[in-house]
Design a protein that fits this description.
Structural class: mainly alpha
Number of strands: 0
Largest sheet: none
Strand content: under 5%
Helix content: over 70%
Oligomer: single chain
Shape: globular
Low-confidence stretches: none
Number of helices: 6
């Protein structure tokens, strides 16, 4: 596989994963509200502050991935987050359409983030393009 194709694959993964993170973070911020997100986390037995941090990570991490900034660090944190979420949702079964959401979607997101972690940001990232 040529380096160009690898860089293009990294770009596509960055755009897909970054857009999903940004959308989820904005949903927590604008629809569920920060206080509502914190309350939901508390209902799961997770400290409410983690809800606020999740909003910050999902919006900031999503933007960073879209731009190709700190791609591997954000991808690593995303892998960890999605593995944890997979375990939280595992009692609800496989399908994310199950009541309470299953583990299928977060597991897929973890694998996507892992692929991006291994590939890196590629040549089509803001930082690499700025060096030229």
């Amino acid at each position: 596989m040529t380096q160009y194709r690898i860089d293009l694959a990294a770009l596509m993964l960055r755009i897909g994963l970054g857009a999903m993170y940004l959308a989820h973070g904005l949903t927590k911020l604008l629809i569920f509200t920060p206080a509502g997100t914190a309350s939901y986390f508390e209902s799961l037995g997770i400290p409410g502050i983690i809800g606020y941090l999740t909003i910050i990570f999902e919006i900031g991490g999503g933007l960073f991935l879209l731009l190709g900034i700190l791609t591997q660090l954000i991808a690593l944190l995303a892998v960890i987050q999605m593995i944890v979420i997979s375990f939280i949702h595992s009692p609800n079964g496989f399908s994310f359409s199950n009541t309470g959401g299953g583990w299928e979607y977060p597991a897929f997101m973890a694998l996507t983030a892992l692929a991006l972690l291994l590939l890196g940001g590629g040549r089509f990232s803001v930082l690499r393009l700025a060096k030229k």
